[in-house]
Amino acid sequence: MMADLFSVCTGEGRTKDDDRRSLWKQEGNMSVTEIKEVLQNCMDRAVDENEVAGCTFCLIRNGEEKLYLESGYADREAEKPIARDSMYRMYSMSKPVTAAAAMKLIEDGYVDLQDPVFRYLPTYRKQYYMTPGGALRPVSADSPMRVRDLLNMTSGLVYPDDVTRPGKETGAIYEDAIRRLGTDNAMTTQEFAERIGECALLFEPGSSWNYSVSADILGAVIEKITGMSFGEYLKESILDPVGMEDTAFYVPAEKKSRLVTAYMNREDQPGEELVPYTGNHLAIRNNGGINPFESGGAGLFSTLDDYRRFTGMLMNHGKAESGKQVLRPGTVRFFSSGKLSSRQQKGFDSWEGLAGHTYANLNRVMVDPDQAVTIGHKGEYGWDGWLGVYFANDPQVHQTILLMMNKKDYGTDRLTREIRNIVNSETE
């Protein structure tokens, strides 16, 4: 019955759109069995060659799961196989969920994209940015950091680095947060955001693009608006309505056995021996312990199926599997589209591997498939995570790709590109 899965082997019950968008078993295309074998071999090779320790893959088409595959280990040392209910550190795939929470406040009239961030966080009222020559200059009254800048990464904020003044100042705050993890004096979401507001900016808000802590600051803004912790609001507005029962900023004791071990190549060289990664990167507790810093940019733990429910809600115009309307259709259209200005795009164009894309609402958006490094379609959107998770929603062919891995710096590496190309080579 594999052929029936895709409804492409006969013409019965198909529409013209089905013919245009159908997967597999058209003339010249691979069968379902063949493409499943190709994908499985690709995943197995990645495990065998130490590209990843384990991986799970899911393909959703027209709202129905078409393929699920897995390979490798959740814990290599214990020889524990990866499983469908394995839990992953989502890192930057937390960002689209944070953006969805912001969209809920926007559609209900609680926040305006033009609102200056200092309306909610006072330390952002008087900020300074670095000129190309390295001098500090005050942010003009006409160009304060706005909520839209947090959603589009045009804020001037940064992640830690050892080169720039903003990067060093941000890094010092993270170092303090990491030192205090698991203590009675752990850093909170609000303290983090307030201190970041005192750091120099890489550029004047709105003038360029830089990947940064913007989503973390957005989480703090949401706390101020709602009077709730970010985790509480996220659970109430997005996680519970969508049915994401295994998603949170920590892993409960009864679920710890499902949390995968994260890995890295020794010496960070592909093909070298995989060893466990145990760091608390970006002040996220690797062990899944409770953390008062609820990082909207990196802090969520989740599963393949929970994130499938989230991506499915977006693909279904904001409606969850339960039938509940979580976001309104117009909100989802806005969330999943958008485009940087030509001036801002110059900053994004330096991001290796994302040619042909722009950025908006904490998502990449494909705008020119001919320039991309993988096969895809205009309008596709999604993001990935630092410890090896990835998703892409493609409204043009009604398709979602989900790939969960447990490998440092591997969200959009070789295996992701190979799987995208295999799947999308069979679409028009």
Write a concise keyword list for the protein shown above:
alpha+beta, Beta-lactamase, two-stranded antiparallel ribbon, 13 helices
In short:
With 428 residues, this protein is of the alpha+beta class.
How would you characterize this protein structure?
The chain is α+β, with helices and mostly antiparallel strands and 428 residues long. The protein contains 13 helices and 14 strands. Strand 5 (128-130) and strand 6 (136-138) form a beta hairpin. Helix 4 (94-107) packs across helix 9 (230-242). It starts with a helix and ends with a helix. Residues 1-27 have low confidence and may be disordered.
List the helices and strands and how they pair.
Elements: H1 2-6, H2 16-21, H3 32-48, E1 54-61, E2 64-75, E3 80-81, E4 87-89, H4 94-107, E5 128-130, E6 136-138, H5 147-152, H6 165-179, H7 189-196, H8 214-226, H9 230-242, E7 263-265, E8 274-276, E9 301-303, H10 304-315, H11 329-335, H12 342-348, E10 357-360, E11 363-366, E12 381-385, E13 389-394, E14 399-405, H13 414-424
Antiparallel strand pairs: 1-2, 1-14, 2-3, 4-9, 5-6, 7-8, 10-11, 11-12, 12-13, 13-14
Helix pairs in contact: 3-13, 4-8, 4-9, 7-8
Q: Please, what is the CATH homologous superfamily?
A: DD-peptidase/beta-lactamase superfamily
- Global shape: globular
Mean pLDDT: 93
Strands ordered across the widest β-sheet: 3-2-1-14-13-12-11-10
| Count of DSSP-assigned helices | 13
- Head-to-tail CA distance between termini: 24 Å
In helices, the fraction of residues equals 25-40%
What composes the largest sheet? Answer: 8 strands, antiparallel
Order of helices and strands: HHHEEEEHEEHHHHHEEEHHHEEEEEH
CATH topology name, in short, is Beta-lactamase
Into which percentage range does the β-strand content fall?
15-25%
Q: Provide the number of structural domains.
A: 1
**Cα radius of gyration in angstroms:** 21 Å
Q: Architecture in CATH?
A: 3-Layer(aba) Sandwich
